[in-house]
Design goal:
Order of helices and strands: EHEEHHEEHEEEEHEEHEHEHHEEEEHHHH
Distance between the termini: 34 Å
CATH architecture of the domain at 230-331: Alpha-Beta Complex
Radius of gyration: 22 Å
Helix content: 25-40%
Number of strands: 17
CATH topology of the domain at 230-331: Flavocytochrome C3, Chain A, domain 1
Strand content: 15-25%
Number of helices: 13
Mean pLDDT: 96
Structural class: alpha/beta
Low-confidence stretches: none
Largest sheet: 7 strands, mixed
């Protein structure tokens, strides 16, 4: 018989969205936080560039809104973008008060960087390139010091518990034990799915669990074809790849191929600071034509160590000194723009289930996320989720107890082979450059894998479910828009403007 835990609020995930939701919700009741590994294992801790917010002279939420809408390629929800950009500055100030040590100038004012497709300097950062880690540190500290927040690490959510059309909690494996957590409100903040691709900047826990779990429960999802590939991951044989932040290009670094040609000059008027999808495709084309690509940051000289100490350490550990060497880079899966459809308070289509952060589809990113808007989205919408779910009444009736066991994986080797195969299939057929024939081939290979998946491979089953959603949506959208590029339909089409593919 599974252990049963009863709580007021349940949060799945320990990135910025999950931790902030838990911390703010704790003022209204008991909170349980489930995290797949440890509290620090999330994409938030990997985030280098910073958080975008209109805080500088000459900037405004309206300008930030315009930049976000432009990057989103006519697929953003205008109301959601308004919420993001107007409420963002207040959330940053609250984080300062909570103890986040953002970088400041000699006058004590926040230092603001610039990144691709931003019209102003508005990127708040910490320790140069350690923004996510600093934000995670602060939120973890707040969560750990709050008595009515309970954390369960090594917790893999298996499925949502749904009764009478409402979410009542989850079934989970906690360090191998079967545990049911019954909650008045459940918040899905499980992060993204970069680990579905051969090359990714996402941590190992980012296997798309949240999308698969929600989909199996009949929750509405949208925009799964829009995967953002970061243009500049460090090109080394690792998983995950180390990110070379957009901010490096924002400070003046340029892209060159192995012939020394600065190829972005002929691609876009904004050159290296063009939207991410354009830069990623340009690098990918260079690679397809047999050329390696490098980031040339040598012009930054000694300022590189001050502005990007973490990236410098990463490169030096791999025998590369950015102050005198070119940095080899490659595009890598970085962020999912789609996910669980929510309203402006984070409510999903399933009663008592909220979604927040990368697993959600609030509409703020549209077809292509503007750089450094992801951490901001986590803060802004977590605040809204926490406030709204405090108003939800207690469950009128608890679900019946049932007898179930955690599925036992007896063939880890076969599961690993399946996971590696998924990564290759999505990279080859549903990656940066897509075609109808390739997507159909990819879907057929995913179906074949599903038939051979070993019993108990729950994580790999989630990967397969999410991979099918991505490839299926990409096949249906017969145009190119934002992060979704179809070589057989290389341009956006008016009939697809503002249209979403839903599951």
């Amino acid at each position: 018989m599974a252990q049963r835990i009863r709580t007021r609020f349940l949060v799945i995930g320990s990135g910025v969205a999950g931790l902030h939701t838990a911390w703010r919700a704790s003022a209204h009741g008991e909170v349980y936080v489930l995290t797949k590994r440890s509290l620090f294992d999330s994409a938030t801790a990997y985030a280098q560039g910073g958080i975008a917010a209109a805080l500088g002279a000459g900037d405004s939420p309206e300008l930030h809104r315009k930049d976000t809408l432009a990057a989103g390629a006519a697929l953003c929800d205008a109301a959601a973008v308004e919420v993001l950009t107007s409420e963002g500055p207040a959330r940053i100030r609250e984080m300062v008060n909570a103890g986040v040590r953002f970088d400041t100038d000699l006058r004590g004012r926040l230092s603001l960087g610039k990144e691709a497709a931003h019209s102003r300097h508005r990127i708040v950062h910490a320790q140069g390139d350690q923004t996510g880690a600093e934000l995670a540190r602060t939120l973890i500290q707040r969560v750990q010091e709050t008595p009515n927040i309970h954390v369960l690490e090594l917790a893999r959510v298996l499925d949502l518990i749904v009764q009478a059309g409402r979410c009542c909690g989850v079934r989970a494996s906690v360090a191998g034990r079967a545990v049911e957590i019954i909650a008045d409100v459940t918040v899905l903040a499980a992060g993204g799915c970069g680990q579905l691709y051969r090359h990714t900047t996402n941590p190992e826990v980012a296997t798309g669990d949240g999308y698969a779990i929600a989909h199996r429960a009949g929750v509405r999802l949208a925009d799964m074809e829009f995967v953002q590939f970061h243009p500049t991951a460090l090109d080394t044989p690792e998983n995950p790849l180390q990110l070379i932040s957009e901010a490096v290009r924002g400070e003046g670094a340029t892209l060159v191929n192995d012939k020394g040609v600065r190829f972005m000059l002929k691609v876009h008027r904004l050159v290296e600071l063009a939207p991410r999808d354009i830069v990623a495709r340009a690098i990918f084309r260079e690679q397809q034509e047999g050329r390696r690509v490098f980031l040339d940051a040598r012009t930054l000289k000694r300022s590189f160590a001050r502005r990007f100490p973490g990236i410098l350490a990463i490169c030096l550990a791999r025998g590369i000194d950015p102050r005198r060497d070119l940095i080899p880079v490659t595009p890598a899966a970085h962020y999912m723009m789609g996910g669980v459809v929510t309203d402006l308070t984070g409510r999903s289509s399933l009663e008592r289930l909220y979604a927040c952060g990368e697993v959600s589809c609030t509409g703020v990113h549209g077809a292509n996320r503007l750089a450094s808007n992801s951490l901001l989205e986590g803060l802004v919408f977590a605040e809204r989720v926490a406030g709204d779910m405090a108003l939800v009444a207690r469950l009128p009736r608890l679900p019946r107890k049932s007898t179930w066991r955690v599925p036992v994986l007896r063939d880890r080797g076969a599961a690993q082979v399946a996971a590696d195969a998924i990564r290759m299939i999505l990279w080859d057929y549903a990656g940066i450059d897509r075609t109808a024939n390739g997507l159909r081939t990819g879907l057929a290979r995913l179906d074949d894998l599903a038939a051979r998946l070993p019993v108990g491979a729950t994580e790999e089953a989630n990967m397969l479910d999410t991979a099918r959603l991505i490839a299926g949506a990409a096949l249906l959208r017969r145009e190119s828009r934002g992060g979704h590029f179809r070589r057989d339909f290389p341009r956006p089409k008016n009939k697809w403007r503002g249209r979403h593919i839903e599951f």
